[in-house]
Design brief:
Elements (H helix, E strand, L loop, with lengths): L12 H15 L5 H13 L9 H7 L2 H14 L3 H14 L6 H10 L1
Helix pairs in contact: 1-2, 1-5, 4-5
Length: 111
Amino acid sequence: MTLTDLNTGFRDDEQRRRVQRVIHDRLADDRDPQECRFLMRFWWQLIMSYQEVSMDELSRNVGRPKLDVIEALIAAIRSSHAEVDAWIATTQHVLPVIQDRGFSATQDGDS
């Protein structure tokens, strides 16, 4: 399935930015660089009209729980603006903000 239509599925730029913020803050964990790279390529796909990443690439490089969240987002974008809002609310409620434990551990060790 092509993902080049996703950039047209948002109510406005603010809704798209909110979705991107959720992807960045709750899905793209740089402790898993390969998965993070493909999630951030998907993040860009939400702006671009050309193919930045494919579903096949996401399926091979993103773990099943996060892939399920991405697939739900794609379905929401292709459904309605209200579904996108519901995806944002649900994802923010279910997934915590990713904390950089490496940075935190370094800071704790310096005290």
